[in-house]
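Quick one from the shared queue. A colleague (R.T.) flagged Phosphoribosylformylglycinamidine cyclo-ligase as missing a structural entry in our internal table.

Convert sequence to structure tokens.
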Amino acid sequence: MTEKTTGASYAAAGVDIEAGDRAVELMKEWVKKTQRPEVLGGLGGFAGLFDASALKRYERPLLASATDGVGTKVDIARQMGVYDTIGHDLVAMVMDDIVVCGAEPLFMTDYICVGKVHPERVAAIVKGIAEGCVLAGCALVGGETAEHPGLLGPDDFDVAGAGTGVVEYDRLLGADRIRTGDAVIAMASSGLHSNGYSLVRHVLFDRAGMSLDQHVEEFGRTLGEELLEPTKIYSLDCMALTRTAEVHAYSHITGGGLAANLARVIPDHLHATVDRSTWTPGAVFDLVGKAGNVERLELEKTLNMGVGMMAVVPQESVDVALTALADRGVEAWVAGEILDRGDHTEGATLTGDYAV
């Protein structure tokens, strides 16, 4: 006699559709908080809709787009069981790339991949993304949550996002606007932001044997709390600065470090020099360097060293720019200048020693 067997199903394979539906319901209230008047429809459609007729006020609108993730910082969130801040990092990585060219952030979509759908956890991630979108001034118009049992562990997850912005053609910022004598203004980072965590985790955990719940006197909190500090979102600050002062270019300091990212917006015939003595990197950068015996050059190639965004402005705009940023609560200072290329082979270099 043949024994009856239960037929295969999606649930038996590890995918819980009902849990996914519950996650969507939980996240709706947060997504709603990001809506702009140009957004049509609600969450749950096959595509997010944005009314492009709003761009009619532009003479020659350029759409700017970017996509990114958060990297291995997500593992810190997983280990700590804190999921409502990692979305800030995602929005910052995407929208602060878009604002660099002078574009206004319009809308964003996200992709969350999990080993197992825990509705409250997914909703917490989306809450963070939605809060980040509010800080960036953009709408969260849609997304996708994918469950990948067998490929990811039940508690594993990753996030990615894509965004779109718009800028008037004749207001496009970048290398062609930069002139000899321009000032380089640095804007303070909130910490490590979302780059270099593979190095950070290797140094602090594998080599130094530290733990996330370890209290660090220099931080005034645990190591985990410091490492999970959300990336600062500069989008609205940069847009406000562009309206207030003449700005020639921005540089978002992410993977690759300060000099390499600044060099991306410097024209071939010019050179940017940044004076380290104009600021003191936060304690976390010193900890990573000392714990791993990491050479300064390697640190600077990997981490932001306390600067999350840079603006290149004409000298006559410096005072207005610094005042505008201070009024918005952004710590900023003149960190360098633009020179003729001369014998320099790099687009940007760091000089001097960090202030103690």
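The chain has eleven helices and 14 strands.
Residues 288 and 294 are 7 Å apart (CA to CA).
Added to the table.
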